[in-house]
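Supplementary Note 3. Input sequence used for the single-chain structure prediction.
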Amino acid sequence: MDFTSHRLWLSYVSYPVTTAVYFERAFRKLMKVTTLGPKIDEFVIESWNLQNMGSPVVDHDIPLPYEYDVGSLYHQTPEDLRPDFFLWIESVYGHFPQNMDKLPCPRVCYLIDSHINLTWHLEWAKQFDLVFIAQREYLHAFQSAGIQNVHWLPLGCDPEIHGQKKGGKEFEVGFVGSIAEGHPRSALLEKIKSNYPLHVRRCFLTEMSEVFSHSKIVFNNCVRNDLNMRVFEAMASGSFLLTDDPGVASGLSELFAPGEDLGIYHSDNLLDQIGYYLKNEVERERIAASGREKVLRAHTYDHRATALLEVLLGETVSTPDARQWRDRSLGLKDTYFLGESPWRGAVLSSRPQRSFVIPVLDKSPASPFNIETLLKDLESVEGNVIVVFNSEKMAASYAKHPRVTLAATLSQNIGVARAWNVGIHLSETPTVFVINADLHFRPKSIPVIERTLQRIEKAAVAGPQGSFVNFFGSTDYQYFDQGMSSRPLQVDAISGFFFAVKRSHFVSGDLLFEDDYTPCYFEEWDLGLQCREKGLECWIAPTSEYDHEWSGTIKANKVVRYFDHQESIFDIHARNTKRFQAKWLERSKLLRNPKLLLSRYPEYLFTLAQESEGRGDLLGAESFRQKGTRLIEHFDRCFGRL
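The predicted structure, written as discrete structure tokens, is reproduced below.
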């Protein structure tokens, strides 16, 4: 994507070795950048032991005090110099611009040291529209604090500064960094020094890279399980990185493979690891070369700046997760950022790339929203609109509406599942949205769902709400209501009031909404199991930009009329419960695959256990793990009785 037409205001405390400098260098390659804020003072330089930074402290483009009024500054700035975005990057405590709510442009922050500054990070982040954090472990803490638009953006390296330097390996073990008295790092370094030649320096920029490049082994020790800059910088130098394991939650072991890209030590085997890798030079240098290749492919600040901007500009729903960063580092096809894919070109194409299928029975008497308000919402969104009228009366009023591309008029109510099938087969676009007439949505919700669907190769269905399904109990283990998931999440089924599908799966015959559930109930759960049977997936898309009240028609009409029948909603539900269970018990036995009926919920609980363990919450981790294990055992008992 071309970012050159955009202008960024970048605010941080100026000094040459802060992370924001690397981001500034990356952003200046992409767009117009104006830096603003204070520069570091002598007191901080002394207290942080930064006297030998190796580069002068310079003023920003707009020098300002630590607490400046950014709202006033914006309105006093000539219009052609005003920013499209404002980005604040953590540097020195006390740098807090004021009146940010007066900025009419998006406000973004990048928080680096959440492992030591979490309390004020959680409060300060509330000032921003979009939050990026360097430490993945704390995503849940931000979400729990009500900060939903938060994304993981790891630290990185700048190859021009941290790249491999010429010269031989003159140091057995090298370390560059701070050493606080009494810190575990100090004891580990003393342990190394007592057994192997150790080179320790406090230096920065290219001088630091020279130490790394000239060391056979670069030692790293994390602070409170952080994924620190030294990991990426040392690997960029082409030397072998030996680091402690900051835990599952950090993402380190997902980004890089121990024994393939770097070395991992524990306090009880540190000396053994050093001895082994000093002795086995060929293996050590092979691992070092692999690590360098990985960081240069996916973990530079150019990569990070682009990922941030793509989220900011709506090109993606979130930054890559660890698996996707790993795929990039391996040079594999990126399934998260789609590059020049068909959906991205849809904006410029004269041929619509999406359709909206709307089944309509009445004017949703129990809801403030109906087909009329929905068609108005669709005026600001591109795509074909296909309305399946289950009522001739409603067709007479709305079939010729200017926003309706194609209408199918039925003399009787054929039910929601059949209407969905009709609409999907009338469509001709890669993506088909299926929406209730009683939905009200904001335009920004559409690309979030669309991109969640398209970025995941196996995703067949995506929508903002869904659940983990208890097949034997015909209920949900856990339902994700509006806003409960801030990142894409794979579930068993997606709710039917607002979702999108890949039309190709319906055209091929892999998927089809089940007619036998007419007029309603169990269609979504059934589709979820169809997806699982075919190796496809259902995903929640993280958007809350819509309003919907459940059962707009059913609330008003306790009796549903369809074809030549009428039936109470309770009888319909009871009948379809039996049909659903009978169909899928038979399918699972026929396929000899009882796990077809096993919810993904235990897997989700085990993931929560890993995340809790990474945060040090061992009791929480054990609780999640036990619950997941009990559910699997319960499933085995249920299926064993059948």
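The radius of gyration is 28 Å. Residues 214 and 354 are 55 Å apart (CA to CA).
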